[in-house]
Structures are given as structure tokens and as C-alpha cells.
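Dissemination and training. As part of the outreach component of the grant, students in the summer workshop were shown how a complex can be specified as a set of sequence lines and then modelled as a single object. The example used during the hands-on session is reproduced here so that future cohorts can follow it. Participants entered these lines:
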Amino acid sequence: MTLTLILLAIGNMLLLMAIRSLRKQRLKERHALLFVAVGVPFLALAVWPDAIGWLSGWLGIEYQTVLLLAVTTFFLVLNFNLLSIVSIQERRITSLAQMVAIMAQKLSVDREHRTSRSPTLPIERDDPDANNRDVA
Amino acid sequence: MKFVRGVVIVPAYNEAGSIERVVEDVKQAVPGFDVVVIDDGSTDATASIVPDWATVISLPFNLGIGGAMQTGYRFAAEHGYDIAVQVDGDGQHPASEIVGLVETLREGDADMVIGSRFLERGQYRQSAARAAGSRVLRLLLRILTGRTYTDCTSGFRVANRRVILAFSHWYPDDYPEPEVVLLLHRAGFRVTETSVRMHQRVSGRSSIPLGRGLYYVLKVAVALLLDTARQPWPQAKVGAA
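and obtained this result:
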């Protein structure tokens, strides 16, 4: 009974986390699917605790520990996949930061050029001959 | 002699105490070269201290030495420079040695020249721990390349246009110096060394504190071994030799 409750809690927690993250747009659909794929077996095990034994027999795996090893391998592969996503994103962020910094420098140079090249408009009241020219 | 456009790239992270002097010294040593300071997200006044005539590229946050250096190489690639010199912002690399490095690059057959502290014996002293770490990396590079690089951790370097293009395309993140030597060698670039003097730090903090030395050697050793399976610079991106 305790095991059933624990498995139910874990399964529900994973599914709720996936749904909540999807609603708040903090997780992409394809990543949320992973949580669903992991959460559903927990719920199935809560309802049917002998499923591991049945699955082992169906797959022809003699020892249940081997199945556990297979599940652990699945999580390791999952972790590897996530780490490679993080590495790619890190590279992209670095690249973006470099481009932003170079473009910001270029913009400031352009701005300086424009400021230094803008013609100074003559101010009429400073021109001593302005009134004479009007009369002529 | 063909006219060449050169740029000196100075990566700097919280180097307010030394950056002005470093940049002024560089301008005095190679007045024909442009100077670009890569402010790697400094929290002190590094960027504002740099003289107006030098270019400052301020990264929005700290990328580390690899990311900062690559920013400089990207700038050099975009602006058509023929030669790029790497000089640390902490004052360890004497600007007077730049001319020698550039001459070695232009006269020799090299694509990149490393300024070595250890090519001439007894020129530079380092702690026993650092010396042991350097020896391990030197040995590993010797096994992997078949060549002896006496100072593969030196960041005092000069590169030609092909290397500038390669680095703007890809550059290692952490502690990049030894990795760059191996990867350039594997990609068919010619890397040589020339003897230089180096100062002790003027101010600021070393990127590799002594306590992290062991981690540094292990990390770089593993990275070097992994690099034997890497080819980050395809000919299509950097052109034929």
C-alpha cells in the first residue's frame, strides 16, 4: 500500500510538473513529453505493482535488476541529451553576446561619426551683416 | 614589403589597475597597429579607463578568456586585419616584444607564433607546482603532435589572416592556449615559438589561482585527448594553406 502511494505521488508529481511548465511556457512540448513518458509508467506501477515482473518475463530478462539497469541507462541517456542541449545553447549564447558587443561598438562609432560630421547651422543673430543683406 | 594591417587584441577582466599602461605601451611599441580591448564583463572601471583612441568592445557578461579572445578574432576577421596579436591585459606581456613576434611571423613559415618564456633557459621563474603542470602538458602535446612546444600555456601570440578566420569560426572556451596549439597542428597550420621576456603581473588576479592548478592540468589534459577526435576548422571556412 505504501509503495502504491509513493509511486502514485511520483507519477502525479511528474505529470503535474510537465503540465504546469507547459502552461507557463517554461518547457517545450518535446521536453514535456519526456516527463509524461516517465510519469505514466510510475502510475501504471502504482496500479499494477507486479508490472516489473511481468515486463521482465515478457522481455525475457531473468533478473529484475537488469531491467532496473536498463531504466538507469535510459535516465543517463536522457541526462546526456539534456547536457548536449545545454552545451549547444551555451555556444549560441556566447556567439550572440560576441555579436551584440561588436555591433554595439560599431553603432557607437557610427554615432560619433554622424555627430562630428553634422554641419553647424549659421545662427542669424550672430551674423553682423545679416540686417544689411536684408536691406540690400 | 607588402603593407599589412595589424590589430592587438587585449582581453581584460577587472584590469583597471593595469589596462591603461598596457594599451599605451602597445601603441608606443607598434604605432601602426590598432588596439582593441575586449572588456569581458568587468565589474570595475576597466572599460572607461581605456584611452579614447583604442577600440573597446564591452561584452554584456563575463564569457571567460576563450569567449573574450574569440570576440577579438571575430572583430579582426570582420575588419580585414592581416595580423592579430594577443596581449594580456594584466601587464605580463611586454609590448616591446610584439615587434619580434610579428617579424618572426612575417619572415618565417608560421601561421601562428607563440611568445615563449622558456625557449631560453633561466629567463622566467615559476613555482615548482606550476612548472610541474607545464611539464605534464608539454609532454602530452609532444606525444600528440610529435613537436616540442616549450610554452604552450603562453597567451602572448601573433596570428596571420588564416588563423584569424579559423579562430573567428571556433575557439575553445576554458584555458584555450594548449588546445589551440594541438588543434592548429592537427588542422595543418604551422605553429612556431620565439623567445620573449615576460613580466610578473602588475595587478588584478590570475585566471588560474595556484589552488586550481591541478584541476587546470587535468581539465586541459582531458581536453587535449578529446581534441584528437576533433576537426573544428574545415578548409572551406578558413581557405587552403
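The domain at 6-238 of chain B is CATH 3.90.550.10 (Spore Coat Polysaccharide Biosynthesis Protein SpsA; Chain A). Students were then asked to discuss how this feature might be tested experimentally.
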